[in-house]
Amino acid sequence: MKNTTGLAVASGKKTKFDKELFKRSVLYNVKTLYRKTLEEASPQQIFQAVSYAIKDQIVENWMNTQKAYEKQDPKMVYYMSMEFLMGRALGNNLINMQAYKPVKEALDELGLNLNAVEDQEPDAALGNGGLGRLAACFMDSLATLGYPAYGCGIRYRYGMFKP
């Protein structure tokens, strides 16, 4: 797939979301990460299990994109910012994967509410102002346009950022 930069993007290949695999992955994550059943797991543990199941789906596309970048050796944008107000990642990832509806259905089938799961995600708190919003919008724009880019932040020890 070609984007506006002319680069072939490996992650442009649409993979069908496998609802049954996702459900098995959530149950497996609860079992192996916390040694619990779904009924015994806390809301935060369920959130983590769902997040890991989504990460497993995302990582394949990420690896394919990295291989394409290595092969094509494109110019890369590195954006340095003190703050990034990216918001919560789970819902954003589901929307970007076009998997929000199937994940909601899968969680419903497991007796879970997606909104309640999403509410367990803490805000990253990587800033508090306009610079963080600008950085987040800039990175979203680069991704939307298909530009190869990385957002680089700092680890500030004595202010609002945690080490």
Question: Can you characterise this structure?
Answer:
With 163 residues, the chain is mainly alpha-helical. It has helices spanning 19-34, 43-72, 89-96, 100-109, 114-118, 130-145; strands spanning 77-80, 149-152. The chain is globular. The N and C termini lie far apart (39 Å). 16% of the residues are buried.
Show unreliable segments.
1-11
Give me the count of strands.
2
How many helices? 6
Mean pLDDT metric: 85
Mind telling me the C-alpha Rg? 18 Å
Helices, strands, pairings?
Layout: H1 19-34, H2 43-72, E1 77-80, H3 89-96, H4 100-109, H5 114-118, H6 130-145, E2 149-152
Parallel strand pairs: 1-2
Helix pairs in contact: 1-2, 1-4
Record keyword descriptors for this entry.
163 residues, mainly alpha, two-stranded parallel sheet, 6 helices, disordered N terminus
Summarize the structure.
By secondary structure, the chain is mostly helical. It contains six helices and two strands. The chain has helices at 19-34, 43-72, 89-96, 100-109, 114-118, 130-145, and strands at residues 77-80, 149-152.
